[in-house]
Amino acid sequence: MTGTHLAFVVVSSFTAVVNVAIAAADLAGARFVLANSAQVGVGRSWLPRLAALKLAGAAGLLLGLSDAALRPLGAAAACGLVLFYLGAIAFHLRARVLHNLAFPGFFCALAVASSALALSS
After folding, report:
1. What's the rounded Cα separation, in Å, for the pair 79 and 119?
2. DSSP codes of every residue in 42-102
3. Interatomic CA distance for residues 106 and 41, integer angstroms
């Protein structure tokens, strides 16, 4: 296993895990999720759909790790998560909610890293 492949496995696994965790918080209606979504203008009814997108991205990443033939699916899932989190950043900027912009930024950075490593490994 090369260093790039190891980095791909570690980063993509971590990206999948944190997306499952934040999707679970969305589905559970965690207090911080509800407060944040209200601040950026995302209605509570959107949360299950947003959680489903995060879970789909995590599943795609894990499937991409499971088999080399499914690596393009993992890369596509990572790219989808990048787009998702760019949208989240845009919502934060539009609403001028900058105090917690680091969270979608962190998730986006993980997705970018997963995407880059999936394409390079």
Report:
1. 10
2. --GGGHHHHHHHHHHHHHHHHHHHH-GGGHHHHHHHHHHHHHHHHHHHHHHHHTT--TTTH
3. 20
Eight-class DSSP state of 118: H
pLDDT score of 1 more than 90: no
pLDDT in tens, 91-106: 999 999 999 999 999 9
Q: Tokens representing 29?
A: 């209606």
Its sign, for the CA torsion 68, 10, 22, 47, is negative
Length of the chain: 121
C-alpha–C-alpha distance, residues 112 and 85, integer Å: 10
